[in-house]
Design goal:
4-stranded mixed sheet, Immunoglobulin-like
Amino acid sequence: MKRALPLCVLFVLAGLAPASAANIPPELYLPLPALTLASGASATPVTLTNHLRDPDVPGTAVRVNVRLGSETADLYLALFDSATPLTVANFRNYITSGRFTDNFFHRSIPGFILQSGGFRFLNDTTYEAIATFPPVPNEFGASNLRGTIAMAKLGGDPDSATSGWFINLADNSANLDFQNGGFTVFGRVLGNGMVGIVDVLASVSTYNATIIDPAWANIPLLAGSVTRYNCLESSAALVSPLAYQVSSDNPALVSATVTNGVLQLTGSASTAGQTTIRITTTDLEGGTLASSFPITVLSSDPLIAWRQTNFSTTADTGSAANLSDPDADGIVNLLEYALGLSPTVPSTAGLPAAQVSAGNLSFTYKRAVATGLTYTVQTTTDLTTPASWNPAGVTQGTPDVNGNVTATTPVGTGPRYLRLSVTLAP
């Protein structure tokens, strides 16, 4: 028998071990969208797993907390959901039912396998065999290489796997891939878990305790008696493969929190502007990815909010100024706003359409904004005299359900003209 290792060795080795496979950092597979919030509003929650993923864990992630004496460590597993869906569903079922809590490794063969999933402690002095679900059909495909995890089963029955599972301590493909229909590999150990944790557990002395249970011919124990302290415990739990830290460049403008992978954003009720949300994503092997996206909080003033949407500014200056015409279509920004037109795309669509009928000159315009502006229709018979424009004699209808307003004035004798004047309401 091998001698028991000092208890401190678990963490001494863990910091020095290379990863069992090269870690691929998290990736942004669907860009985070630029968001716009109304003043004081909250954004639709953003589920970060819809945008970020860990290429190393395309399916289920599992944390196995292991204990060696008074020392504990977390071993992380990536399960192969797509390749072995029935086996993964079976393994998940044992975890969610609590049957993979307070287990212990009951079989250790150096250079071969380390096995758990057969027994669990009820308390510090008693244990029981794990109650099993119906056997799962064999799904052999991937080879039993070092660092993979596979299902244990009965000899001569490929479809007999239930709760027992093991970690391959070496390349066992020449043996286990061709035995009993092949042993189903359904996951692998992540990061430095093999050298840092599994190999340390596998180096603990083993004992023949078949007098207590026939399955304990190679049970690893810190000392030669089967007690809870001497056994190597394991408890499995489903975990998220990614963790997130989120921050806002301007927390007073937009507050940002993340809970269970869901990003919550709330805009200020008193301040408008733009800021950046930053996310640091960390995988189970310590790989990180920094990503960010802009977010705009619109002003409660509709004109300023329109200016933010179209020009990304709150200031009445430059191309965003009310009297500027950045698209050079002859319609200044304030009028574009009033008529519901784009200030950056030249267009005459939506301008008042004039007609003469039954002795009246009329035109219809769309009143796009109901508040913050004064709409006045004026008339004149003399285009050469600016001061002659006057609303007297003009009948201006009320907006219909679509915001359309029709204004009319008698033609009388000589020419008659109509125009729409839009000013900021006092």
